[in-house]
Amino acid sequence: MTQRSPEIQQADPEVFEILEAEDQRQHTTVRLIASENYTSKAVMEATGSRLTNKYSEGYPGKRYYQGQENTDRIERLACERAKSLFGAEHVNIQPYSGSPANLAVFYAMLEPGDKVLGMGLPFGGHLTHGWKVSFSGRFYDAHAYAVDPTTEQIDYDAVARQAREVRPKMLICGASAYPRTIDFQRFAEIAREVDAVLLADIAHIAGLVAAGVHPSPIDVADVVTTTTHKTLRGPRGGMIMCKAEHAKAIDRAVFPGLQGGPHMNAVAAAAVAFGEANTDDFKAYAQQVVDNARALAEGLLTHGLRLVTGGTDNHLVLLDLTPRELGGRAAATALEKAGVVVNSNSIPFDKRKPFDPSGIRIGTAAVTTRGMDQGAMGQIAGFIGRALDNIDDDTALSAIRADVEAFCADYPIP
Ligand SMILES: *Cc1c(COP(=O)(O)O)cnc(C)c1O
């Protein structure tokens, strides 16, 4: 477990106690939230560095304040490392997170009211891909594509037909809750046919893309956005990669269009994470993430559970609790009592409300960082199966929790 310096304990015992409790929680539970991970100590150290004290509005060599010799070096290093990791022509590492990165792309590539076509939220898309409660659905003429009701996968011919009808100025692909490979090449063909800009949002799968265990959109999409903190295992942050022709528009949209000073501590931590991701160890990690998701899916199927699309190609599985006549929220609450932390999630064509949907989303990025393998996934599937069989039995859930804690003790967290 992390060794915290005694300084904060003396300066602020109240916050210290909360931080210790969170360390404990992260150590003693099975964290299956698909967007979460454990960063290395090196990444955490950079995040907690004195770069947090520095204002650096602008870009390397073109800043508005003095004192930038080190911030310029760290931002250039982060961008160079990202370029070599993903093969991108241009990188902007300043977005505060994934949502602001997408906002910047809208700002750069579109005028308010322009048409966009993205995957609907209930089918696995993200809020910022045109959903009505988000800026992207409010200030743009947003249209959504679904998945095929039978396969529960993207029907590329149907997306193409819809694109011909809608004629979006920007087509968006990428998802937050889609367990299958995304065919970026096919999306690029559709975008080209209707003369749309293609935005590929790889927030969830960036680590898999970097490691080559999921196809990359870099050569086929006009713009690629990502977070740095999901499978990529870096600090909280966002990043935009694009063709050189869009570099100026993207950079201007991020600053001064939407943001002020970048968080240079996060930029430094991203540089560390990109260095880590450009290693054989990380490639093995990403492959293990995918192998683990497959093993977990098989384990869950063995326990008689239903999976959306029947399985997975990436780091996540989406459980459909409809056959169990269970709500996702009650299931997630019971699982948490058992020490297994997940989120409830809508499934395609969900008959329940978004706040209490029919699904559970499960990802393997965090547990794989702890060194868990396929055998461990079998055990986790067992914990989930037992908890879902006993969601109203607090005694049974406590017993599972004790087993989960004993299991977790063998897998230290960074
Ligand atoms: C997580 C996610 C985002 C947003 O990231 P935040 O850092 O939470 O703002 C954007 N797009 C997709 C597809 C995501 O999964």
UniProtKB/TrEMBL annotation:
Keywords: Amino-acid biosynthesis, Cytoplasm, Methyltransferase, One-carbon metabolism, Pyridoxal phosphate, Transferase. It comes from the Bacteria. The record marks H229 as: Plays an important role in substrate specificity. Its cofactor is pyridoxal 5'-phosphate. It is found in: Cytoplasm. (6S)-5,6,7,8-tetrahydrofolate binds at L121, G125, H126, L127, E245. It holds the Pfam family SHMT. Residues 8-384 form the Serine hydroxymethyltransferase-like domain. Catalyzes the reversible interconversion of serine and glycine with tetrahydrofolate (THF) serving as the one-carbon carrier. This reaction serves as the major source of one-carbon groups required for the biosynthesis of purines, thymidylate, methionine, and other important biomolecules. Also exhibits THF-independent aldolase activity toward beta-hydroxyamino acids, producing glycine and aldehydes, via a retro-aldol mechanism. Homodimer. Belongs to the SHMT family. PANTHER family: SERINE HYDROXYMETHYLTRANSFERASE (PTHR11680:SF50). This is Serine hydroxymethyltransferase. It comes from Lujinxingia vulgaris.
